[in-house]
Write a structure and sequence with these properties.
The chain is an alpha/beta fold and 325 residues long. The protein starts with 33 loop residues before the first helix and ends with a strand. The protein has helices at 34-63, 79-138, 141-166, 180-185, 200-212, 230-235, 274-283, 294-302, and strands at residues 172-175, 189-195, 220-225, 240-241, 243-248, 251-257, 322-323. The protein contains 8 helices and 7 strands; from the N terminus they run H-H-H-E-H-E-H-E-H-E-E-E-H-H-E. The protein is rod-shaped and about 160 Å long. This is Thioredoxin domain-containing protein. Residues 174-261 form the Thioredoxin domain.
Amino acid sequence: MTSNQNSAGAGKAAKFVAANPLGPMSNPFEGMGDDEKEYQKVVSDNVNKRMEGAMNDLKKKYSDGRGGDDMGDNGPTGDAYQKHQQMQKKRADAARAQKNASKKAEAEMIKAQRENMQQNDQDESSDDEYDDLLEELDADPEMEALRAKRISHMRQKQMDRAENLAKGHGSYRIITQDEFLNEVTTSKWVALHFFHKEFERCKIMHHHLELIAPIHIECKFINIDAEKCPFFVSKLQVRTLPTLVIFRDGVAVDRLTGFQEMAVDPSEPDKWHTSKLQAWIASTGAITFAMPTEEIRKEMEKMGITPRGTIWSTKHANADDEDED
């Protein structure tokens, strides 16, 4: 049979050079003479004997516990190998500890969630009791009617507030003669201050009305220069400044001329509290305000509460009302 191995000459390793590993093995001594065959056999036996001896020596070393001594520190029993093994063990221990800690934290979280669920169950039970009570109240026609009336009142109040703000309530503004009718007739309640820019008492009235306007959205607070609206000054018969006129649905219903009964001390007529003006405006029905009673004032003083408001403290040369020419 023809061999698939390539021949490389008549040397000792001729049959093994450039051999095809996938081809069938042929007799390595084929084609040799008797002397050469004998020589190759002796060499083969010698190699086999040495390999067998080396294998026996290795077996003996490992059986005696000396295996790997000739491999240095990198051998399985060397220092470097042992340090590596120790490091691997530490890493494994650390990973195991971290895993245990994670499991413990997860267990604590599950426990907390269970407690929270139990608490929620209790809260839901309380909510159920509250809902039952509401259902009982809802079952009462009188309570239901009262609640519906209250809700309707609150909604109407919010709507009125929004409407008033859209009309200019909530601030103290100056208007012109051309704006007079529109401003006075579009709101239910209007407080209009006729002033003169050079009169000190008009400045005092400005001061107090600026404080009142943002508080009482139910009434519109405006002012007009008396010199620039002669028609309405004549029509309303304004003779003394400052004059505060209260309008209801466009009709003048009351007026405050000068500082009538506003002063805290009659000897100082220009010094008076904002609440005095609030009380007067409330007496016309334009705003809702009640002066604290003496008993309430004493209780407020005990609690350290001071009623809000100011007193105009500037000294004025002329204490009398100023007449317009």
